[in-house]
Amino acid sequence: MNEYLDNARRNIQRAMESSFNFLSGASSMAGNLAANTGSTLYSRLMILKAQVMAESSGPTESTSKADSSQKQQRMHLVSVVCGFPKDINMYPIYLDGQFGEDAWFKASTTKAYALGVADGVGGWRAYGIDPGRFSRFLMRSCERLSHAADFKASQPKQLLARAFCNLLEQKQPILGSSTACVLTLHRESGILHAANIGDSGFLVIRHGTIVCCSMEQQHHFNTPYQLAAPPPGQNVNMLTDGPDCADLLELEMQSGDILILATDGVYDNVSKELLLQVLSPAAGIDNPVQLQRYANSVALIARLLSLNPNYDSPFSLNARRHNIEAHGGKPDDITVILSSFIQ
After folding, report:
1. Which of 110, 116, 202, 334 has the fewest Cβ atoms within 10 angstroms?
2. What is the pLDDT of residue 263?
3. What family name appears in the similarity comment (predicted)?
4. 3-state SS string over the chain?
5. Domain boundaries in the chain?
6. How far is it, in rounded angstroms, from Cα 201 to Cα 186?
7. CA separation for the pair 333, 343 (Å, rounded)
8. What digits encode the pLDDT tens for the residues 121-134?
């Protein structure tokens, strides 16, 4: 296992080095928006090791219908991941499927592709509870259940609900709460199905335009909907939303579509306009190393802007709309899953 991890880290390092010029352009863009971030912060960020994972799946197995088989063989989703924990010192070692209190998964089966992110609610730390444990278990359960024989590729809400039930049934209670966004792409139909709870989310870019995006679910400002498992006797004092609260969306994907699935550490700091500017050129890319450069850029831009006290972030603008005085970026864990749909 150690040898495997060492090889993986070397591959990651090579990919990051090949991306240097590309990332320099993205960093310059972020620098223009956040002129006061400063060279010290930039230098520190550039030595952070953003942990990445790339996957490209091949053609699917044949079905009884020749036309369906041909469509499946042509259709594939290239997906890569990048992110940063909010506190590098608290999370100095990368764990698969985790960036700080954020968690994620991606899976590929004969039925569908499945992707998900979850953002553990940090307030639980005040109660001595690890906020990331809930989100990690939830996403790992989603990944495992997506490989089950009875997995329904068109029902991400059911996948999320089963994972949540699995969490609640553990003999050793897993306490906490998190937002969650789970996507499935049905191989045969090419339809993307989404189930979203809270303020993580996704958007699809087609020909330089956002054609589909999730909407935040908030009880009130900065208090998103969340799946929760509170300590015994605390149910009345905690927000506890169920999988039935999930906002459902579906979209027929087209070749060249770019899909970004991310936690609020991205959306609170990077505007949709900037995401369009950075990601639109990625349309049609089927090389995971090339696509990784775009994911790295989004994560790095989000990180830079989140730490700039003089940047008018989407979060601070939204806060002022709610008569809350706020300025600058919003430091947070950052998770980006970037996918390119090829047919």
Report:
1. 110
2. 98
3. Belongs to the PP2C family.
4. CHHHHHHHHHHHHHHHHHCHHHHHHHHHHHHHHCCCCCHHHHHHHHCCCCCCEEEECCCCCCCCCHHHHHHHHHCEEEEEEEEECCCCCCCCCCECCEECCEEEEEEECCCEEEEEEEEECHHHHHHCCCHHHHHHHHHHHHHHHCCCCCCCCCCHHHHHHHHHHHHHCCCCCCCEEEEEEEEEEECCCCEEEEEEECCCEEEEEECCEEEEECCCCEEECCEECCEEECCCCCHHHCCCECHHHCEEEEEECCCCCEEEEECHHHHCCCCHHHHHHHHHHHCCCCCHHHHHHHHHHHHHHHHHHHCCCCCECHHHHHHHHCCCCCCECCCCCEEEEEEEEEC
5. 72-342
6. 19
7. 33
8. 999 998 899 999 99
Is 197:244 a contact under the CB 8 Å cutoff? Answer: no
Amino acid at 294: Y
In sequence order, the 6+-apart residues with CB closer than 8 A to the CB of 276 are: 205, 208, 209, 210
pLDDT at residue 69, as a whole number: 54
Per the listing, tokens 């002129």 go with 35
pTM for the full model? 0.83
Is the separation of the CB atoms in 243 and 197 below 8 Å?
yes
Give the whole-number percent of the chain exceeding pLDDT 90: 73
Q: In what order do the strands lie in the sheet with 334-342?
A: 53-56, 76-84, 334-342, 258-262, 201-206, 209-213
Query: Residue 70: which pLDDT band, with cuts at 50, 70 and 90?
Result: low
CA atoms of 66 and 72, how far apart (whole Å): 10
Residues contacting residue 226 through CB under 8 Å, at least 6 positions apart? 121, 177, 178, 179, 197, 198, 239, 240, 241
The values of phi and psi at residue 301, to 5°, are: -60, -45
Tokens of 291: 């696509």
Inter-CA distances, 301 with 23, 29, 211, 342, Å:
9, 8, 23, 26
- Residues belonging to the chain: 343
> What are the angstrom distances between the C-alpha of 54 and each of 106, 148, 198?
10, 23, 26
CA distance between the termini of the chain: 35
